[in-house]
């Protein structure tokens, strides 16, 4: 038996080398385990023998149709048949199932009719094996058997061979069949374009409905690497005509592709260089079409690309395989929150809470959040309010082959939100909860059903032409329906008959103090009703009085905690917050670390009271100097004799010179200050050139402080 198999295999190899085509047919029995359960092992053994007999018989009967044919059992109910079609075959491979398998199945069922009382179905997958230069025949046959096996186990695809042919054309002539579209990713604070995600498109395709169908099929037939490589090349070569001013290019990468020798060998880096780009301009977006099984190996691969300058984004967070383990193991620079979490986030408390959690989590690990799939103004307002860093979606702009303008409505929304997001504005938006909406045509019983299905929702909004005209409180509705004739009177009528037409509605620009005052001025019966937050009467969400009171109290405590008791300047909490806000804006800014030289000696010599006087004097010098800058300048007191100043990078040197001059003048008014001097460590932070974190800012400033203190006397150093 084994000798005959060897001979048959060698003959197949010889025919392949002679450029003959081999058809590989993989057969098994549909739900064979269930058949075995119903009829037992012995009957199933006879069924398998009969199918072998019928396959052998059919091959012998049709021997004149083929140059060569061969059959082998793969164990159990799996069989492989090899055909080398001859000139006598008048049907092609796409008709093989109809011409060969279906008649075989009918004859096989006739054979076993005495064994079983039902029809046994065969499942098939067929692949074509053609000689390729540089590939051995055994490799080609193995790949064809594997492909036939995968087709056997998957759903039937009537367009399989047409799709495979289209992929062949695409690989041979990518410039003709493949194009790169680009969708902008904008900064949430400024609305400026941060980068573009490259998206492959096959405009003239007749077999693939969209690009999402292409990659699974390419993986099925073993062509994923070449397809991904071509998409990557097309994106890189097309990008210079799209981008301006160091905008980042987001490239989708399947995890498996990271071990592709062509990618790892530096070919991609070379292609980037040819287009005037560097790895630091590129974000590798891990698409996770399949689960990452070996995180250790994969993390090593990512480190290799990070060292070259690439940034890493984890795509589809919140969906599919993108788990929290991926975030913990891979330490991405960006998290792209999936559309499934963004859709309807403005009115879904669960999605709202999840996105808020992701944002908080990202801040703690020094990562940035991209909300993808934003398609409505309400979704945009919500994701910005919750603090995402970047936004992508149809509402911003659709993917395009050339650079398109951002939707003008986006800038309008973001300008307002940027103003409201700053801590100084004390925005009511910081505590808004989702407000489910119903229109004025909704029946009372529909709202009742909603409240019963959502036991924690206590208020809904009623709109007409997208503007809020009233609210419906849970208690008020059930109270009305609970009266003797309530259900009869109201259930089939529209909701306006019961809604509150005069709720407290505040604009999203209203400061917390004003909202609190308005809420407390209401009558006792309305004192604890929800507060509706709107933008030009278009509802954004609601705020509970309990949350409002809690936030006001926390804010007062935070202010008290944040100030240094000696100088009254913002302390470490507010300093950290200020640095983070500047980093999140992705703008260039300057920082000066201020330190008194020989302060311990001065303090020990003249006493702590005189030491406190010196520290207060320095704080006044810093405040006075900051008032003379053209840009807004922040002065904070780290503690002891250490201070920090955050200002425009353009004025940093001028500010440092002014501080040294004023300090020298002020020292003349204090006893024993001849030994005191001030060291200024200046640091210019360009977030476009490096991925800064508060910890990295602190470390760099400390390094420069060490250098400037070594100079001695009143001195400054700006890096």
Automatic annotation (TrEMBL):
Pfam families xrefs: CBS, EAL, GGDEF
CDD domains: EAL, GGDEF
Gene3D superfamilies cross-referenced by the UniProt entry: 3.30.70.270, CBS-domain, EAL domain
Residues covered by the GGDEF domain: 587-719
PROSITE patterns: EAL, GGDEF
Recorded superkingdom: Bacteria
Location of the EAL domain: 160-413
SMART domains: EAL (SM00052), GGDEF (SM00267)
InterPro entries per record: CBS_dom, CBS_dom_sf, Cyclic-di-GMP_PDE-like, EAL_dom, EAL_sf, GGDEF_dom, Nucleotide_cyclase, Rev_trsase/Diguanyl_cyclase
Alphabetical list of PANTHER family matching this protein: CYCLIC DI-GMP PHOSPHODIESTERASE PDEF, SIGNALING PROTEIN
NCBIfam families: GGDEF
Protein name as it appears in the record: EAL domain-containing protein
UniProt lineage: Bacteria, Bacillati, Bacillota, Clostridia, Eubacteriales
């Amino acid at each position: 038996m084994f000798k005959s198999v060897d001979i048959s295999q060698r003959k197949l190899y010889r025919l392949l080398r002679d450029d003959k085509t081999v058809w590989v047919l993989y057969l098994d029995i549909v739900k064979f385990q269930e058949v075995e359960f119903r009829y037992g092992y012995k009957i199933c053994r006879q069924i398998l023998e009969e199918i072998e007999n019928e396959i052998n018989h059919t091959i012998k009967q049709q021997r004149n149709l083929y140059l060569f044919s061969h059959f082998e059992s793969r164990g159990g109910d799996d069989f492989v048949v090899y055909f080398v079609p001859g000139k006598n075959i008048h049907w092609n491979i796409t008709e093989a199932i109809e011409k060969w398998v279906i008649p075989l199945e009918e004859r096989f069922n006739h054979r076993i009719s005495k064994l079983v009382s039902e029809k046994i179905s065969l499942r098939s997958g067929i692949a074509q094996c053609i000689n390729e230069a540089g590939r051995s025949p055994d490799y080609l046959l193995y790949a064809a058997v594997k492909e036939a096996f995968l087709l056997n186990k998957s759903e039937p695809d009537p367009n399989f061979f047409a799709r495979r042919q289209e992929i062949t054309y695409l690989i041979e002539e990518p410039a003709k069949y493949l194009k790169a579209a680009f969708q902008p990713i904008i900064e949430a604070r400024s609305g400026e374009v941060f980068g573009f995600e490259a998206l492959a498109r096959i405009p003239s395709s007749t077999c693939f409905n969209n690009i999402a169908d292409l990659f699974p099929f390419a993986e099925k037939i073993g062509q994923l690497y070449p397809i991904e490589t071509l998409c990557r090349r097309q994106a890189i070569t097309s990008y210079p005509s799209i981008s301006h001013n160091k905008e980042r290019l987001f490239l989708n990468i399947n995890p498996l592709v990271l071990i592709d020798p062509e990618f790892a060998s530096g070919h991609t880096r070379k292609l980037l260089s040819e287009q005037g780009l560097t790895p630091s301009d590129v974000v590798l977006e891990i698409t996770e079409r399949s689960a990452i099984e070996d995180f250790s190996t994969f993390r090593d691969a990512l480190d290799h690309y990070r060292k070259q300058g690439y940034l890493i984004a984890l795509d589809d967070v919140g969906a599919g395989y993108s788990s929290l383990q991926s975030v913990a193991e891979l330490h991405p620079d960006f998290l792209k929150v999936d559309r499934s979490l963004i859709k309807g986030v403005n009115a879904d408390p669960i999605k709202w809470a999840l996105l808020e959690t992701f944002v908080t989590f990202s801040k703690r690990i020094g990562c940035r959040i991209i909300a993808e799939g934003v398609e409505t103004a309400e979704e945009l307002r919500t994701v910005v309010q919750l603090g995402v860093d970047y936004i992508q979606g149809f509402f911003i702009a659709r993917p395009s082959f050339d650079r398109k303008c951002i939707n003008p409505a986006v800038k309008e929304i973001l300008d307002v939100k940027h103003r409201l997001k700053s801590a100084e504005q004390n925005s009511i938006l910081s505590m808004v909860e989702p407000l489910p909406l119903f229109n004025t045509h909704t029946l009372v019983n529909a709202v009742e059903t909603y409240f019963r299905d959502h036991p924690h929702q206590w208020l809904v909004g009623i709109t007409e032409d997208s503007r809020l005209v009233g609210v419906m409180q849970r208690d008020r509705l059930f109270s009305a329906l609970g009266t003797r004739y309530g259900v009869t009177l109201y259930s089939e009528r529209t909701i306006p008959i019961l809604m509150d037409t005069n709720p407290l509605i505040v604009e999203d620009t209203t400061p917390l103090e004003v909202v609190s005052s308005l809420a407390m001025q209401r009558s006792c019966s309305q004192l604890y009703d929800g507060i509706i937050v709107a933008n030009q009467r278009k509802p954004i969400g609601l705020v509970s009085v309990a949350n409002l009171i809690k936030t006001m109290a926390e804010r007062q405590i935070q202010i008290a905690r944040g100030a240094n008791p000696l100088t009254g300047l913002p302390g470490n909490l507010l300093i950290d917050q200020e640095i983070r806000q500047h980093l999140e804006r992705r703008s260039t800014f300057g920082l000066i670390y201020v330190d008194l030289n020989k302060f311990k000696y001065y303090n020990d010599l003249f006493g702590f009271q005189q030491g406190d006087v010196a520290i207060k004097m320095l704080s006044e010098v810093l405040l006075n100097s900051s008032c003379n800058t053209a840009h807004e300048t922040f002065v904070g007191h780290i503690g002891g004799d250490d201070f920090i100043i955050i200002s425009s990078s353009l004025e940093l040197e001028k500010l440092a010179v002014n501080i040294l001059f004023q300090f020298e003048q002020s020292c003349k008014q204090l006893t024993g200050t001849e030994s005191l001097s001030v060291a200024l460590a200046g640091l210019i932070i360009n977030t476009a050139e490096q991925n800064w974190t508060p910890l990295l800012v602190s470390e760099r400033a400390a390094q420069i402080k060490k250098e400037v203190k070594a100079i001695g006397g009143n001195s400054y150093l700006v890096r």
